[in-house]
Amino acid sequence: MIARLVLLCAALAASSLAGAQVYPNGPVRLLIGYPPGGSADFTARVLAEDLARELGVAVVVENKPGAGTAIASDAVAKAAPDGQTLLLNWHQAIVRSLFKGQLSYDAERAFVPVSRVATGTTVLVAHDSVPAQSLGELIALAKANPGKYNAASGGHGSAPHLALAAFEAAAGVKFTLIQYKGGGPATQSILAGDTQVLFATSPAVMGFIKAGRLKPLVVAMRKGSPAIPGIPGSEAAGLPAFESTFWFGVFAPAGTPATAVRRLHQAASAALARPEVRAKIASQGMDATPSASPEAFAAELAEEGPRLEQLVRSLGARVE
Questions:
Q1: 153, 69: one domain
Q2: In total, how many domains does the chain have?
Q3: What is the rounded distance in angstroms from the CA atom of residue 108 to the CA atom of residue 282?
Q4: Confidence (pTM)
Q5: Of 182, 203, 237, which residue is a domain's last?
Q6: Between 275-283 and 39-55, two packed helices, what is the crossing angle to 10 degrees?
């Protein structure tokens, strides 16, 4: 009888433990550090739809813009490490470099990598009031009129911010930087004529380029991008030293169980393998690029971090 009770207790304990390890056990929140309308928002919503299908629970995208994604990052860093709250973001090395000593969370240790999601580049566009029809003409104008033209940026440390800084360094020009809280507001500023040039992720501007409302001058890749046809790369445009790409990945709070991280990676990989998901991402000028494993993503981050930190330092891109 005692033996039976021991076995029963053991079975109940195992059952309870197994139940506690079930993931996910409710809706999943996917936070991004930008407002609606930009590439991060687009990528998050495409991913969330298929993650929900793979995980069998609702995946809700929440926009928490501001402070170069530090607000959203802080919220996820301080969330329960159960995999129910996730972050879609670029490399934390950028935020760490921009906000030296000012972050309320440990950008180096606060997250566990899950998977890279998509990789893309930016497009330089100009307002119709700018009398330049090519990149060379814009560079000549900017050199003759330093600081005259306003450049919109989609936030401190964003891909457009770093692309602008890299372009200024490569071309030897200087614009007056106007920061906005995302690609959507930045695009609205150039459409209104409040700013004259903008590096933007393609989802934010391709519709306006096709409608003839913005002039595309260069894709921030040396050879251009097959996903963004008809716009020259930096080599063809006459500035081969210039290139700037970006990516988005999924992160969970540090301490999230490995089983949950692996389940999330599996779900993300399955979602990004779907032809319709890849087509949606490609239609916005990006490529679906899931990591082989969480460990592989972590290794990529470790290798890339020092280079990005050096880039931010060398370009002087920082929060004033």
A1: no
A2: 2
A3: 31
A4: 0.77
A5: 237
A6: 170
Q: What is the pLDDT along the chain (320 residues), one digit of tens a residue?
A: 444 443 434 443 443 343 345 899 999 999 999 888 778 898 999 999 999 999 999 999 999 998 889 999 999 999 999 999 999 999 999 888 888 778 999 998 999 999 999 998 899 999 999 999 999 999 999 999 999 999 999 877 778 888 998 999 999 999 999 998 878 899 999 999 999 999 998 877 888 999 999 999 999 999 988 778 889 999 999 999 999 988 999 999 999 999 999 999 999 999 999 999 999 998 878 889 999 999 999 999 999 999 888 878 776 656 65
Number of H helices, E strands in the chain: 12, 10
Main-chain phi, psi angles of 90, to 5 degrees: -90, -165
Sequence letter at residue 311? L
Domain shared by 30 and 171, yes or no:
no
What does the alpha-carbon distance between residue 148 and residue 145 come to, in Å, rounded to a whole number? Answer: 5
Half-sphere exposure (CA, 13 Å, Cβ side) for 305? 15
Tokens of residue 86, six digits: 């996730």
Same domain, 193 and 215: yes
Give a three-class secondary structure readout of 279-298: HHHHHCCEEECCCCCHHHHH
Q: Which domain holds residue 56?
A: 26-120+246-315
Other C-beta atoms within 10 Å of 167: how many? 28
Single-letter residue type at 82:
D
* 192 burial type by CB count under 10 A (0-12 exposed, 13-18 middle, 19+ buried): exposed
